[in-house]
Amino acid sequence: MTESSKSKPEIEFPEGPAPAELQIEDIEVGTGAEALASSTVDVHYLGVEYETGDEFDSSWGRGESINFPLRALIQGWQVGIPGMKVGGRRKLVVPPAQAYGTAGGHPLAGKTLIFVIDLIGVS
């Protein structure tokens, strides 16, 4: 797998209440191919809980990027990644309804999540 030349991001602890809507912020705009809703993406990412700042997942922690078809991911990623270009870094703040639901089942259900995503490749 392709490795990102960027280092693992640090996420500043957010202030105020968690947003009710998906927030998309380009930290760095890429110059490569653009991700589409139908794309499979090669990414490095970091995920933390909005309320606590606790990291729950990181591809950097595993030492390699991950390939995902966007259609198989949480809605926040399906909406938040298309339009991003290879080489870019984007922050998504994903409310529970667009993450793992508002209650039950998943350990992250009911939680607002913050992801920082580096787009390494698309196919």
From TrEMBL:
Signal peptide: none annotated. It is an enzyme of class 5 (isomerase). Its EC number is 5.2.1.8. Residues 1-21 are annotated as: Disordered. Keywords: Isomerase, Rotamase. PROSITE patterns: FKBP_PPIASE. SUPFAM superfamilies: FKBP-like. GO terms for molecular function: peptidyl-prolyl cis-trans isomerase activity. Residues 1-11 have a biased composition (Basic and acidic residues). It holds the Pfam family FKBP_C. It catalyses: [protein]-peptidylproline (omega=180) = [protein]-peptidylproline (omega=0). The keyword Isomerase applies. Residues 38-123 form the PPIase FKBP-type domain. Belongs to the FKBP-type PPIase family. This is Peptidyl-prolyl cis-trans isomerase.
